[in-house]
Amino acid sequence: MDTLESSYGAVSIRLVRSRDARTLQHELLTNRSWLVPWEATNPEGAVSMDMRSGIRRLLQQYRDGMGVPFVMEYDGEIAGQLNVWGIARGSLSSATIGYWVSERFAGRGITPTAVALATDLCFEKLHLHRMEICIRPENAASIRVVEKLGFRYEGFRRRYIHINGDWRDHHAFALTREDVPRGLLHRWVTGQTPQDASRVTNGDQSSMA
Ligand SMILES: CC(C)(COP(=O)(O)OP(=O)(O)OC[C@H]1O[C@@H](n2cnc3c(N)ncnc32)[C@H](O)[C@@H]1OP(=O)(O)O)[C@@H](O)C(=O)NCCC(=O)NCCS
Fold it and tell me: Which end of the chain is more exposed for a tag (fewer CB within 10 A), N or C?
């Protein structure tokens, strides 16, 4: 699992390294108001903002086969993080993707490209079968990411993840390998993304009220 990196155009993903700590810590601290509404929090109390120990923990999870912690780069500069977490093997063979970019990198298509690259690596190199992305209904920018890539809407999860200090409702979107036989990036860049796959069904929208 040591060649987990990939790129397309100016966007690349690679495993996070200990020496990224200073850059990532700076980005997290200078993007607080941008990130806080969407950031996972600890229901037991405050989370440490020490990036060095955070990276150590992520790399340990990687060695344990539980996750893959990528950084996203744009023209060689760190733009944010993309974390594959909750890897389940065997008859489930699935994982979940989370991500953020610094505000100054937003709107350049970095995240959808990185999600496509990561999904293809997970399917091809890690032999996972299903990738999931869970998003708060309020997070229009993130929902655009799954719409662009045609992740399928799979349902509403009430008070699912602890975000910004409370349990928040999420929409779940997913893809399986069969959806993208030639890869997710290929499907996207060749204009074959299904247009309505990510549409939230009415019943689920009204249940949020
Ligand atoms: C969600 C997020 C990762 C999207 O990343 P990105 O690399 O900007 O993705 P895209 O370039 O494809 O932009 C997606 C949408 O963001 C919105 N957007 C673009 N520029 C923006 C800006 N400067 N500020 C706010 N939103 C912007 C647009 O609606 C865009 O869709 P469009 O291309 O159809 O106009 C990014 O907005 C982010 O990091 N947000 C804060 C953390 C977060 O929400 N993480 C996800 C939790 S599920």
Answer: C
